[in-house]
Amino acid sequence: MKRLLFCITLLAVLAATPALAAESDTVLWGAYGGFSVGVMFLDTSDLNDYLDAWDVENFSTTLPALGLSGYAVLTDRFVVGWQGMITAQSKPGELADAQIIAGFTGLYFGYNVWRTSDWRLRPELGLGWSGAYLGLRNIVREAHDLHLPEGYDDVVMDRNEMHARLGFSAEWTPALKRNSNGLLGLALGLEVGVVLPMFEDNWSIRAVHGDDDDDDDKTIRGEKPDLQLLMPYCALAFRFGGGITEEN
Taking the mean position of all CA atoms in its chain, how far away is CA 19? Predict the structure, then answer.
């Protein structure tokens, strides 16, 4: 009987919580900013085949990622913000060492389809730029028609392209400090989405010295890797901010 009463009480509290939260203040105008940690998914299978010529260890398709973001809340429902995420990984090889860096940055718009004083759920649509960098260091043997000038043993390749981003964010935003017309609080969020390339650009290839002096870089030709910048991601976001809770 005690267990039954406990379960009934717990269910009643859980059922009442959304209603109570909906009656409390929500942020009408405000801003939040912070960082995120998560993973990005990148199809590296063709890249790994390309790097087999230098016996480089395979890159994973699941890469750790870090991000920064900030957004403004407009009239309670609308959100306008900026987001960027980046991932990097290095792998050794018998005939060269490789490093890949990939990421994206851009503006986005969102709409809080459900919100209370403590929760916000919204879809997001963004536009921006994504890019990738591939570095080959200490090349022992040339491959893929990459002919290095005398005295050079490093190659860098990079590309940038425009993208669209589709995402969904679920946030818990408890107030740390509240007054009669505003609050300061946290925004702990779960973010999932995908970056979709719109206008793909080609790789640029340069031979570089080990001192990374850009003035000495030389553009070269050769076969380029096939790496699609279609990047699903999932991250936990940690932000701080707040705003006003009623119109003056």
Answer: 34
